[in-house]
């Protein structure tokens, strides 16, 4: 069984070179986590504070919130890249993090080689990756570029490669950051179907996004992260409505309805 449980998990970043005298006390900025001082009088960014999360198989959670709210930090905590400064975080299951497009990629080797490297990074074997190569290559539509070193790729082209690899595996826990938004509209339409498919196969999804379209497509619940804390948890449309207002909530509800009918009648996709 896959599961994610955090108990009062906090992540602080100590900043040793902050100009601490020019910090204004008790000011909450509209972007970023709370800036404070720890017991040693060092300036710290409190990126996450008292996060209590209990996720089980089938949970597809969207993370919404302002820039610097702590969404990416939460994904890194769940992936094990960060340890909680206080509190605990227990994750059971194979984690596939898709937030750092640079991780598991080598700019100097070809797209083909990077497909294998990234697969290894996500826990696959070379043999498994070779077997999937044609399918992934076709999906990315990168053609001859796949024989070129990765440094010659644009951001969106890199995302295509990363998406091709990640949608070809069977992740137990999938952590997605919104970098996937860098691909063009035509490719996104194609990737959406593959992503939705993969999300159905994965046990738990946690997805940080500023796009209500994506949230509606991939998630069934959402968390509003605000200055490092969970401000609200609930259904996607409710949380988006609380965060962005009634118009956005209504928009998400309409999308959800549309996807429901599409699911019921596959010919309409
Ligand atoms: N490596 C780091 N060192 C210091 N502070 C950091 C670090 N990474 C993140 N932070 C701080 O932690 C807070 C949360 O950042 P995070 O990247 O998690 O936000 P986010 O919700 O993903 O924002 P966005 O919507 O802009 O992607 C911010 O205040 C940020 O300044
Ligand atoms: Mg982020």
In short:
The protein is an alpha/beta fold and 269 residues long. It has eight helices and ten strands.
Give an account of the 3D structure.
With 269 residues, this protein is an alpha/beta fold. The protein has two domains: 3-94 and 171-268, Rossmann fold (3-Layer(aba) Sandwich); 100-170. The chain has eight helices and ten strands. The chain has a six-stranded mixed β-sheet with strand order 6-7-8-4-9-10, with helices on both faces. A hairpin with a 5-residue loop joins strand 2 and strand 3 (43-56). Helix 6 (212-218) crosses helix 8 (246-264). The longest helix has 19 residues, at 246-264. The chain starts with a strand and ends in a 5-residue tail after the last helix. Magnesium ion is lined by residues 71-72, 177, 208.
CATH level 4 superfamily of the largest domain: P-loop containing nucleotide triphosphate hydrolases
How far is the first residue's CA from the last residue's CA?
Answer: 33 Å
Name every ligand kind in the structure.
Answer: adenosine-5'-triphosphate, magnesium ion
Task: List the secondary-structure elements in sequence, H or E.
Answer: EEEEHEEHHHEHEHEEHH
Strand order of the largest sheet: 6-7-8-4-9-10
> Which structural class fits the helix and strand makeup?
alpha/beta
Number of strands: 10
Pfam family, one: ABC_tran
InterPro entries: AAA+_ATPase (IPR003593), ABC_transporter-like_ATP-bd (IPR003439), ABC_transpr_TagH-like (IPR015860), Bact_Polysacc_Export_ATP-bd (IPR050683), P-loop_NTPase (IPR027417)
Domain ABC transporter: 18-252
GO cellular component, one term: membrane
